[in-house]
Amino acid sequence: MRLANVNGRLVIRVADGDIDVERASEGRFPADPSAVLEDWEAFSAWAQALDPASVEVAPAAAAADLGAPVTRPRQIFAIGLNYRDHAAESGLGVPEEPPTFTKFLSSVTGPEGEIVLPEGNVDWEVELVAVIGRTARDVSREEAWSHVAGLTVGQDLSERVGQLAGPAPQFSLGKSHPGFAPMGPVLVTPDELDNPDNIELGCSINGETMQKGRTSDLVFDVPELVSRLSRTVTLLPGDVIFTGTPAGVGLGRSPQRWLQPGDELVTYVDGIGEMRHRMVSRPA
Ligand code: ZN
């Protein structure tokens, strides 16, 4: 199943268009895209039994009308140094535990549009994003996938000067400027993917490939992250995990490279879709 947020309303995206969840369920499930994650098991059962021929299917909404498929996560986790080649280009070792920070909620945006570049050096990080569908506390690696509602594409945009400043580097702030947590275009349930543990992901700037990797190279893969995080925190339905980025960020290049006004950043995960963002300068 593929879910999208069309102008704030949850839809199921099928081959020939979009099914509005609130209308098709006659109000049993609300239009709010985050609300079904609170009732994920009932929603999935209803959606799987739904006959598309029995409901209205609207033409698929344009990318410009899509918002982030998760609108109100209570917790957003992000993992650093989770691909060996990226840890190496960052000049750091492969961690023994997943280095975890947050991206604050106000940084969430949709899969297409403009992103204002703040002062400093703004870098790109393509990431697979996992969305929790069932409360997870002390779950094992084997149980972990059953707590994931779906996967989406994310960018962990990062302002490196602020991120790396001071005695306790400010990962959470440097990665939380407005628009720095785009997600989309759709939330895809793991069963839709041939192998949810081995997916290609990447990004390009103005058509030039910057990153290309595979989630099979994750140091801590999705089940491991869910399991390990759940030993410390309780993962709640609708929570989001940015799982880390492969090599090819601007920080690791020689010379270093940063996003510039006018740049078009295209970010994809195979089997899920792509996002497209235009960088613009901060208004004077
Ligand atoms: Zn990241």
How would you describe this structure to a colleague?
- The protein is of the alpha+beta class.
- The protein folds into 2 domains: 2-61, no CATH class; 67-281, Fumarylacetoacetate hydrolase, domain 2 (Alpha-Beta Complex).
- The protein is 17% helix and 32% strand.
- The chain is built from 8 helices and 18 strands.
- Strands 1, 2, 3, 4, 5, 6, 7, 10, 11, 13 and 16 form an 11-stranded mixed β-sheet that branches.
- β14 and β15 (208-214) form a beta hairpin.
- It is globular and about 55 Å long.
- The protein starts with a strand and ends with a strand.
- The mean pLDDT is 96.
- The protein binds zinc ion.
- Zinc ion binds next to loops.
Topology diagram in text:
Blueprint: E1 2-6, E2 9-14, E3 17-20, H1 21-24, H2 35-38, H3 40-49, E4 66-67, E5 76-79, H4 84-89, E6 100-102, E7 108-109, E8 112-117, E9 122-123, E10 126-132, H5 141-144, E11 148-155, E12 158-159, H6 160-163, H7 171-174, E13 181-188, E14 200-205, E15 208-214, H8 222-232, E16 240-242, E17 264-269, E18 273-281
Parallel strand pairs: 5-16, 7-13, 8-18
Antiparallel strand pairs: 1-2, 1-4, 1-13, 2-3, 5-6, 9-12, 10-11, 10-16, 11-13, 14-15, 14-17, 17-18
The chain binds zinc ion.
